[in-house]
Amino acid sequence: MPVLSARALLLDMDGTLVNSDAVVERIWRRWAERHGLDGDEVMKVVHGRQGYASMAVLLPGRPMEQNLADNARMLAEETADLDGVVPVPGAPEFLASLLAQGVPHALVTSADVPLSTARMGAAGLPLPEVRITAESVGASKPDPEGFLKGAAELGIAPQECVVFEDSGAGIEAGRAAGMRVVGVGARAGAHGPDAVVRDLRGVRVEAAGDGLLLHVG
Prior knowledge:
Order of helices and strands: EEEHHHHEHEHEHEHEEEE
Helix content: 40-55%
Largest sheet: 6 strands, parallel
Shape: globular
Radius of gyration: 17 Å
Oligomer: single chain
Protein backbone atom coordinates (compact mmCIF):
# COMPACT_ATOMS: atom_id res chain seq x y z
CA MET A 1 0.00 0.00 0.00
CA PRO A 2 1.66 3.26 -1.09
CA VAL A 3 1.97 6.00 1.53
CA LEU A 4 2.19 9.61 0.35
CA SER A 5 3.06 12.52 2.62
CA ALA A 6 1.46 15.92 2.04
CA ARG A 7 0.27 19.09 3.72
CA ALA A 8 -2.88 19.68 1.64
CA LEU A 9 -5.22 17.90 -0.76
CA LEU A 10 -6.74 19.29 -3.95
CA LEU A 11 -9.89 17.44 -4.99
CA ASP A 12 -11.54 17.23 -8.37
CA MET A 13 -15.34 16.79 -8.25
CA ASP A 14 -16.85 14.82 -11.15
CA GLY A 15 -15.60 11.24 -11.16
CA THR A 16 -13.58 11.83 -7.98
CA LEU A 17 -16.08 12.87 -5.30
CA VAL A 18 -19.30 12.76 -7.32
CA ASN A 19 -20.41 10.16 -9.85
CA SER A 20 -22.15 12.26 -12.50
CA ASP A 21 -21.38 9.98 -15.43
CA ALA A 22 -25.05 9.37 -16.23
CA VAL A 23 -25.73 13.08 -16.70
CA VAL A 24 -22.50 13.72 -18.61
CA GLU A 25 -23.31 10.87 -20.99
CA ARG A 26 -26.84 12.14 -21.62
CA ILE A 27 -25.85 15.76 -22.21
CA TRP A 28 -22.75 15.18 -24.31
CA ARG A 29 -24.19 12.40 -26.46
CA ARG A 30 -27.09 14.71 -27.35
CA TRP A 31 -24.55 17.40 -28.21
CA ALA A 32 -22.57 14.93 -30.34
CA GLU A 33 -25.69 13.94 -32.26
CA ARG A 34 -26.56 17.59 -32.96
CA HIS A 35 -23.11 18.12 -34.44
CA GLY A 36 -22.86 14.85 -36.35
CA LEU A 37 -20.06 13.47 -34.16
CA ASP A 38 -19.51 9.96 -32.87
CA GLY A 39 -20.70 9.82 -29.26
CA ASP A 40 -18.06 7.33 -28.15
CA GLU A 41 -15.28 9.53 -29.53
CA VAL A 42 -16.77 12.59 -27.86
CA MET A 43 -16.85 10.84 -24.49
CA LYS A 44 -13.11 10.16 -24.74
CA VAL A 45 -12.47 13.92 -24.75
CA VAL A 46 -14.95 15.61 -22.43
CA HIS A 47 -14.03 14.30 -18.96
CA GLY A 48 -12.07 16.79 -16.87
CA ARG A 49 -12.20 19.75 -19.21
CA GLN A 50 -14.49 22.76 -19.24
CA GLY A 51 -17.08 22.36 -21.96
CA TYR A 52 -15.75 25.09 -24.23
CA ALA A 53 -12.30 23.46 -24.17
CA SER A 54 -13.76 20.08 -25.13
CA MET A 55 -15.65 21.74 -27.98
CA ALA A 56 -12.44 23.36 -29.22
CA VAL A 57 -10.83 19.92 -29.45
CA LEU A 58 -13.85 18.29 -31.08
CA LEU A 59 -14.73 21.13 -33.50
CA PRO A 60 -11.38 22.70 -34.41
CA GLY A 61 -11.78 25.94 -36.27
CA ARG A 62 -15.17 26.81 -34.79
CA PRO A 63 -15.14 30.35 -33.37
CA MET A 64 -14.54 30.40 -29.62
CA GLU A 65 -17.54 32.69 -29.17
CA GLN A 66 -19.77 29.84 -30.37
CA ASN A 67 -18.07 27.39 -28.02
CA LEU A 68 -18.55 29.72 -25.05
CA ALA A 69 -22.22 30.28 -25.86
CA ASP A 70 -22.78 26.55 -26.37
CA ASN A 71 -20.96 25.85 -23.11
CA ALA A 72 -23.25 28.23 -21.20
CA ARG A 73 -26.31 26.37 -22.49
CA MET A 74 -24.74 23.01 -21.62
CA LEU A 75 -23.94 24.15 -18.07
CA ALA A 76 -27.57 25.17 -17.56
CA GLU A 77 -28.74 21.76 -18.83
CA GLU A 78 -26.30 19.93 -16.56
CA THR A 79 -27.27 21.99 -13.51
CA ALA A 80 -30.95 21.18 -14.07
CA ASP A 81 -30.33 17.44 -14.63
CA LEU A 82 -29.35 15.75 -11.36
CA ASP A 83 -30.89 12.35 -12.10
CA GLY A 84 -28.34 9.68 -11.20
CA VAL A 85 -25.88 12.01 -9.44
CA VAL A 86 -24.50 10.09 -6.44
CA PRO A 87 -21.37 10.18 -4.30
CA VAL A 88 -18.38 8.13 -5.35
CA PRO A 89 -18.16 5.24 -2.86
CA GLY A 90 -16.22 6.35 0.20
CA ALA A 91 -16.52 10.08 -0.57
CA PRO A 92 -18.72 10.97 2.43
CA GLU A 93 -16.37 9.22 4.86
CA PHE A 94 -13.28 10.63 3.14
CA LEU A 95 -14.49 14.24 3.37
CA ALA A 96 -15.65 13.71 6.95
CA SER A 97 -12.17 12.49 7.90
CA LEU A 98 -10.58 15.60 6.36
CA LEU A 99 -12.89 17.87 8.33
CA ALA A 100 -12.46 15.91 11.57
CA GLN A 101 -8.66 16.07 11.35
CA GLY A 102 -8.47 19.65 10.11
CA VAL A 103 -6.73 18.67 6.88
CA PRO A 104 -6.32 21.63 4.48
CA HIS A 105 -8.18 20.81 1.27
CA ALA A 106 -9.85 22.51 -1.67
CA LEU A 107 -12.26 21.62 -4.44
CA VAL A 108 -10.73 22.24 -7.89
CA THR A 109 -13.36 21.61 -10.54
CA SER A 110 -14.08 22.47 -14.16
CA ALA A 111 -17.73 23.01 -13.16
CA ASP A 112 -19.01 26.49 -12.42
CA VAL A 113 -20.46 27.56 -9.06
CA PRO A 114 -24.12 26.63 -9.78
CA LEU A 115 -23.20 23.21 -11.21
CA SER A 116 -20.70 22.30 -8.48
CA THR A 117 -23.12 23.42 -5.77
CA ALA A 118 -25.97 21.43 -7.31
CA ARG A 119 -23.98 18.24 -7.82
CA MET A 120 -22.31 18.24 -4.40
CA GLY A 121 -25.72 18.86 -2.84
CA ALA A 122 -27.38 16.09 -4.86
CA ALA A 123 -24.64 13.71 -3.72
CA GLY A 124 -25.07 14.82 -0.10
CA LEU A 125 -21.48 16.02 0.19
CA PRO A 126 -20.24 19.12 2.04
CA LEU A 127 -18.65 21.83 -0.07
CA PRO A 128 -15.05 22.51 0.99
CA GLU A 129 -14.47 26.02 2.28
CA VAL A 130 -11.92 26.68 -0.50
CA ARG A 131 -13.33 26.16 -3.99
CA ILE A 132 -11.69 26.81 -7.36
CA THR A 133 -14.38 26.66 -10.05
CA ALA A 134 -14.68 27.57 -13.73
CA GLU A 135 -15.17 31.22 -12.76
CA SER A 136 -11.85 31.24 -10.90
CA VAL A 137 -9.56 30.47 -13.85
CA GLY A 138 -8.75 31.67 -17.33
CA ALA A 139 -7.72 28.27 -18.66
CA SER A 140 -9.29 24.82 -18.40
CA LYS A 141 -7.55 21.64 -17.32
CA PRO A 142 -5.12 20.29 -18.52
CA ASP A 143 -3.72 23.75 -17.76
CA PRO A 144 -2.42 23.70 -14.15
CA GLU A 145 -3.90 27.11 -13.23
CA GLY A 146 -6.74 25.71 -11.12
CA PHE A 147 -4.52 23.51 -8.98
CA LEU A 148 -1.92 26.25 -8.53
CA LYS A 149 -4.68 28.65 -7.41
CA GLY A 150 -6.01 26.03 -4.99
CA ALA A 151 -2.57 25.61 -3.41
CA ALA A 152 -2.14 29.38 -3.19
CA GLU A 153 -5.54 29.83 -1.53
CA LEU A 154 -4.55 27.24 1.08
CA GLY A 155 -1.12 28.79 1.53
CA ILE A 156 0.66 25.51 0.76
CA ALA A 157 3.52 25.03 -1.71
CA PRO A 158 2.50 23.04 -4.81
CA GLN A 159 5.02 20.27 -4.15
CA GLU A 160 3.39 19.70 -0.75
CA CYS A 161 -0.05 19.13 -2.27
CA VAL A 162 -1.58 15.88 -3.53
CA VAL A 163 -4.24 15.99 -6.23
CA PHE A 164 -7.16 13.56 -6.48
CA GLU A 165 -8.35 13.18 -10.09
CA ASP A 166 -10.15 10.75 -12.39
CA SER A 167 -9.48 12.15 -15.88
CA GLY A 168 -6.50 12.37 -18.19
CA ALA A 169 -6.87 16.15 -18.45
CA GLY A 170 -6.97 16.50 -14.66
CA ILE A 171 -4.02 14.21 -14.05
CA GLU A 172 -2.00 16.12 -16.65
CA ALA A 173 -2.95 19.39 -14.93
CA GLY A 174 -1.85 18.10 -11.52
CA ARG A 175 1.49 16.95 -12.86
CA ALA A 176 2.03 20.25 -14.68
CA ALA A 177 1.43 22.01 -11.34
CA GLY A 178 4.32 20.01 -9.83
CA MET A 179 2.02 17.93 -7.64
CA ARG A 180 1.65 14.23 -7.01
CA VAL A 181 -1.61 12.70 -8.18
CA VAL A 182 -3.85 9.95 -6.83
CA GLY A 183 -6.02 8.59 -9.63
CA VAL A 184 -9.59 7.64 -8.75
CA GLY A 185 -11.62 5.17 -10.79
CA ALA A 186 -11.34 3.21 -14.00
CA ARG A 187 -10.36 6.14 -16.25
CA ALA A 188 -7.42 7.23 -14.12
CA GLY A 189 -5.06 4.29 -14.39
CA ALA A 190 -4.27 4.81 -18.06
CA HIS A 191 -2.85 8.29 -17.42
CA GLY A 192 0.05 7.53 -15.09
CA PRO A 193 -0.96 8.86 -11.65
CA ASP A 194 1.42 8.27 -8.75
CA ALA A 195 -1.11 5.89 -7.20
CA VAL A 196 -4.58 4.71 -8.20
CA VAL A 197 -7.63 3.51 -6.31
CA ARG A 198 -10.94 2.10 -7.50
CA ASP A 199 -12.80 4.64 -5.33
CA LEU A 200 -12.29 6.63 -2.14
CA ARG A 201 -12.81 3.59 0.07
CA GLY A 202 -9.21 2.84 -0.86
CA VAL A 203 -7.79 5.94 0.84
CA ARG A 204 -7.07 6.53 4.52
CA VAL A 205 -5.89 9.91 5.79
CA GLU A 206 -3.69 10.09 8.90
CA ALA A 207 -2.63 13.36 10.50
CA ALA A 208 1.13 13.46 11.06
CA GLY A 209 2.75 16.48 12.71
CA ASP A 210 2.03 19.55 10.59
CA GLY A 211 1.10 17.38 7.61
CA LEU A 212 -0.63 14.15 6.76
CA LEU A 213 -0.04 10.66 5.45
CA LEU A 214 -2.19 9.16 2.71
CA HIS A 215 -2.49 5.38 2.78
CA VAL A 216 -3.56 4.49 -0.75
CA GLY A 217 -4.57 1.11 -2.08
